[in-house]
Amino acid sequence: MKTPGAFYKPLAIGAPAPFREPPVSLERMIHFVPPHMEKMRAKIPDLIHKVDVILGNLEDAIPADAKTDARAGFIQMAKDNDFGETGLWTRVNCLNSPWFLDDLLEIVPAVGDKLDVIMLPKVEGVWDIHYLDQLLAQLEARAGLSRPIMIHAILETAEGVKNVEQIAAASPRMHGMSLGPADLAASRGMKTTRVGGGHPDYAVLSDADGTGARTAYQQDLWHYTVGKMVDACLSCGLKPFYGPFGDFSDPEACESQFRNAFLMGCLGAWSLHPTQIEIAKKVFSPDPAEVAFAAKILEAMPDGTGAVMIDGKMQDDATWKQAKVIVDLAKLVAS
Ligand code: GLV
Ligand code: MG
Predict the structure, then answer these.
(1) Is the CB of 181 under 6 A from ligand 1?
(2) Are 280 and 268 in contact, with CB atoms under 8 Å apart?
(3) Where does Mg(2+) bind (predicted)?
(4) What's the CA-to-centroid distance between 91 and ligand 1, angstroms?
(5) 111-148, pLDDT tens digit by residue?
(6) How many whole angstroms separate alpha carbon 126 and alpha carbon 288?
(7) Predicted TM-score of the model (pTM)
(8) Ligand 1 in reach of 160 Cβ (< 6 A)
């Protein structure tokens, strides 16, 4: 049985280490499926064994004249399949669209018992979460559902980024957040047409070397927002995710963007193309060499206190906690 809810227990002040539980379920890739396409729905039984989460997308990328079919297709795919431990999510249309209300009114009574998470796009503030929270409470009560459907917010407007801490704390239904770099770029007036990833012109120029040559070092356009989102999420016990990477022809850049997010605290990313499933699986599973080193730290400091040297590197209570994050994730991947 999948357990939705607070995935990280917050630190109790003064509590001895270990203080934080690992995430209860693996969600390394949220795999997007367009549910109005029958040939894509036919792939679900196979996908269930390959991905951590399957998401039926109803919002952007689904044409306006296919919205009703996408909603019906999602209900169909939810009914037709046993998802087992694989998460079942949907991305509904945004709150002020003509489709959102029917998305909720039709999906929750029909397949709310199988639905783990609703991804809500273009969240701007607590009011958006409160509205969905109450609507879900009514629909769950009417449908006799005992397990709450969780909410995952996409951080993809300047207003949303401004309010990210309040959004994270808005409801016990909050599961986590994803960065939405395409909408966010538009909302902020950033000058890029890419879906995530870097930009060659966003760079820092080195000083001239002896020959007068200078090198441009490309920077991560999303560093600030990912950092802000990770802090907001972790301080409330939620899970942070990098979102989409749109250039399917550049798996190397996708891997690099996902890895930056992983190192900064994200637990997964969206896979929009089958090739991105393996990239996310590789990146969001801890590196075996790192796990082996982390295990040495835990072994050398059984009660998590004090200071020891391992391979010339100082370890103490803080690095013990860092090591525990990595070892716990490795255990989860292995389970
Ligand atoms: C995702 O929804 C994005 O806008 O990047
Ligand atoms: Mg978007």
Answers:
(1) yes
(2) yes
(3) 156, 183
(4) 11
(5) 999 999 999 999 999 999 999 999 999 999 999 999 99
(6) 40
(7) 0.92
(8) no
